[in-house]
């Protein structure tokens, strides 16, 4: 597979990297024997991967599929898999945490979990598009490679990267995994942005360290071979968690093998479910659909713990997590993004909290605690395997933390619909109408949903929205939502009572 939904919801792309294959060999096949096998085909070895596989380039004019079939007929070859392209899967005292803008943190009860653990001691490898190391919320939480001397221009640990002090970059092939697209920084911030520095927001596990491993370019695309190399880097440098907010529709044996190696090394993998709005059971997205004991897959939920319209779902998806209009680090400040790419790092942060709380936990135990600690929601039944949203405090309680989770609090204050009035004129069968309402009072109000004829047509933080509506009788209402998921609905006003007549004034 591999080229899938992006963080902002993109169409699938099943392209492979030029004319390359990744070839895995059976146990006992020596390096010289594997070279001989490749040399007998219309291909040449491009490079070796840490797990023993080789990336090969098929000669111009030769059939990639033909070479793959020829190789897989050899007794010393386990697989010959395309080098697929994958894509990013993207729809405290810190001010955006305090005012409810970072609603995802509140929905997963991150602050409650910090009573027991903040992720200190855990390292999360962010396999993505790099990070902006100058962002104040990320700069202090970067992992440091103790085997590398900063700024000396030497590959001190002989791993192929010069001065890879905070991570590595397979796009530029250097030791500076700088983010050029914004996706990687956003993901990293949700996992472990600094808390309590009076800047922007905080991550789910603000005490954890981030290991940025850049294999996605500025457009959010990268190859399986580079992803595998990044996984093995994370293994070599003892990461505890890997976040994979990317994927695609093609099954890749070498990538699965790399994730299995990570599991053997004690690393928990967190993978985004994908943004195609389909069942992963019938249309799988990988790596989320890999059946591995060290991998947990994550769908995207909204402020009311419902599955989002763009999120993939199915029995192969384990949990849901906040994934709509998530505020996190971008550039030198913050930005909002939606997607399962945003949901997965909430769970990666929770996994880091678990490893910080109980160092040395096996990946299967980390995942079992996350699943045991979910907050159940009837609307997720049949959509994700556990039927719930991941919860940081619930996870640590499953490990014996004994955290008291505060009650949900009161619902937002009563408010009224204002405009339009009982009759609205448009030109044509459909037209733009401005809706407005009074403000609801709530200390952690996160926004409003505007419902027209039974469907959510807008999600806004302001008290107005412009929506295209059909001519005829229209019923509308507005739902105020706070960060804890409490709601209050306004359906009545002196002007419209929530029902309007939309008149088509277009001349015939």
At a glance:
Helix 7 (224-236) packs parallel to helix 8, helix 9 packs across helix 10 (363-372) and helix 10 crosses helix 11 (392-398).
Q: How many domains?
A: 3
According to CATH, the homologous superfamily of the largest domain is: Peptidase S8/S53 domain
End-to-end Cα distance: 52 Å
The CATH top-level class label of the largest domain: Alpha Beta
Q: What's the helical proportion of residues?
A: 10-25%
In total, how many beta strands? Answer: 26
Please identify, by name, the CATH architecture of the largest domain: 3-Layer(aba) Sandwich
Largest sheet: 7 strands, parallel
| Uncertain segments | 1-14
Q: Number of helical segments?
A: 11
CATH topology of the largest domain: Rossmann fold
Major sheet strand order? 6-7-5-9-11-12-13
CA-based shape: globular
Describe this structure in words.
The chain has helices at residues 31-39, 64-72, 95-98, 103-107, 110-113, 183-192, 224-236, 253-264, 340-357, 363-372, 392-398, and strands at residues 16-25, 43-48, 54-58, 77-88, 123-128, 168-169, 209-214, 221-223, 241-244, 246-247, 268-272, 295-301, 319-322, 326-330, 333-337, 375-376, 388-389, 417-419, 423-426, 430-437, 445-452, 455-460, 464-470, 472-482, 487-490, 499-504. The chain is α/β, with parallel strands linked by helices and 508 residues long. It folds into three domains: 16-84, Alpha-Beta Plaits (2-Layer Sandwich), CATH 3.30.70; 95-398, 3-Layer(aba) Sandwich (Rossmann fold), CATH 3.40.50.200; 417-504, Immunoglobulin-like. The strands form six sheets. It has a seven-stranded parallel beta sheet with strand order 6-7-5-9-11-12-13, sandwiched between helices.
